[in-house]
Amino acid sequence: MTPNISVDTKHTLREPISTFAILDLETSNLPAHNNNRVSITELCIYAFDPAVLKDNENSTDSKQIDESFSPELPSPPRVMHKLNLLFQPSMLVHPEAEIITGLNNYILERESKLDSNSGELIKRFLEHLPPPVCLIAHNGWGFDFPIVRKALNKLNISLPASTLCVDSLRGFMEIDDKLNDKNAVVEGNLPTDIKAEQIDIVDNSIDPVTQKEIDWQSLNENTPKRQILNRADALLKRKHLNADDTDIPANKRTLQDMKSRRQLFTGLNCASTKRYPPRGRYRLSHMYERIFKRPAINAHRAEADVIMLTKLIQHYNVNFVAFAEEQAIPFTEVVPIGGKTSNCTN
């Protein structure tokens, strides 16, 4: 395996992400309710190659157009690395956290604490994966990553220098915005009188007019009218347009497509800017139920949440890969919860 390498923190073209590591935590309480003091009770990571998402890139755009569409539940990647750990908390589990997660001090009293052994286990697990590895968590920049960073800093443990991280909550919002913008262009936010115009259909059975019969003055003085397509016709046209590049080698076509998709998210600086989602709409369990039309089972159990997030990432597929490769930041840039960045290096 090639060694882990450092990453450029600027928005320059860097090595593509080799592994997505989907992360979820359960904790003893919300940090804001206890002066940023919090203890991890459960940690789960599922890791896989994002190339499996690029292989399924044909479905996302059409699925995002109509929320009444109910996509099939994606099958999990065949090659999947899994880590699931429970810890004895170092403080009292808040009653509300117990209700939500099903974990309390009593049932965790025989578990090991999050100590140097478990910290090294997490590190070795990530080192086992093909680098660069990108950690992904829902509200990760605001919750999971700062908590993990602080826990590892206390143990004087650093993750591989090439480790990246990205927030799926922000990613899903930005992707939805871009797809909605694209669909608005297809439908056209045009005046009602223009929308009402009929599309002329050319009948090839009619004899073509001669050059003398063409009113060139009329043609030159009239502004051409844009053809307005409904959603079904627009999707069909887009499919045909995408099929016109068959003479381009597949690998080059994929690189061109990824580059153009990444450009959609250039300059956003998502990790350093705040954006608040519509209330409840982007909550993990709500998203899962809204998109897949299925109940979210065992929500707020780390592994169940990781499974739901994995399926949502599969749903957004190549668009999420593009967002992650453009907006991921080095894990070393994450500010520990309630503290400052550490200069600790691997």
TrEMBL record:
One of its GO terms (biological process) is DNA catabolic process. Keywords: Exonuclease, Hydrolase, Magnesium, Metal-binding, Nuclease. GO terms for cellular component: cytoplasm. This is Uncharacterized protein LOC111603965. Residues 19-322 form the Exonuclease domain. The gene is LOC111603965. It comes from the Eukaryota. GO terms for molecular function: 3'-5'-DNA exonuclease activity; metal ion binding; nucleic acid binding. It comes from Drosophila hydei. Belongs to the exonuclease superfamily. TREX family. Its cofactor is Mg(2+).
